[in-house]
Design goal:
This is CLUMA_CG014341, isoform A. Helix content is 19%, strand content 46%. It is an alpha+beta fold. It has one domain. A hairpin with a 5-residue loop joins strand 5 and strand 6. It is elongated and about 45 Å long. The structure holds 2-acetamido-2-deoxy-beta-D-glucopyranose (4 copies). The site of one 2-acetamido-2-deoxy-beta-D-glucopyranose has 3 residues, from loops.
Length: 117
């Protein structure tokens, strides 16, 4: 049982990593019947010479379980950044999403939205 779960989680992580590298977009979970928009915001950081840009977005909701999280890279040419979930997420009522530039000196622009039931 535990091994099976481990294998499923490993595949999910591989799929996620492949997706993130290919598109720089992060999408976790899916819309369920009754899912409503809980939060949306655009995060924009300009590049600063010699620095990486990083920002943690924390969202929490006292009532609803998160069903889908997206961080869409609006710099669609792949120079934008990387998004990852560092705590909470789908199935939780909170999530911390880390937004990072792809290289020193670069900024990022992400559109983040969170749905839940
Ligand atoms: C991000 O901010 C920069 C500098 O303020 C601006 O030039 C750019 O248009 C902004 N991009 C978005 C997508 O808001
Ligand atoms: C959230 O998930 C918990 C645990 O699965 C469940 O008991 C609860 O009913 C869910 N809440 C909503 C609003 O769906
Ligand atoms: C990538 O896209 C951003 C935003 O659309 C733009 O400011 C930047 O110049 C583009 N970079 C390249 C290398 O095309
Ligand atoms: C996020 O949710 C988890 C599980 O419900 C909880 O244990 C944790 O304390 C929460 N974290 C924050 C910062 O609210």
């Amino acid at each position: 049982m535990e091994r099976k779960i481990l294998i499923i989680v490993s595949f999910a992580l591989l799929a996620l990593v492949g997706f993130v590298i290919a598109r720089n977009d992060l999408t976790v979970g899916s819309l369920q019947p009754g899912s409503v928009l809980l939060y949306q915001q655009t995060y924009n950081r300009t590049g600063v010479a010699g620095q990486m840009q990083s920002q943690d977005v924390f969202y929490t909701n006292p009532l609803r379980n998160i069903t889908r999280i997206r961080a869409l890279d609006l710099n669609a040419n792949g120079t934008g950044g990387f998004a990852s979930i560092v705590s909470g997420g789908v199935g939780f009522r909170n999530v911390t999403i880390r937004l990072q530039s792809s290289a020193i000196g670069r900024g990022f622009t992400f559109f983040v939205d969170i749905y839940g039931n």
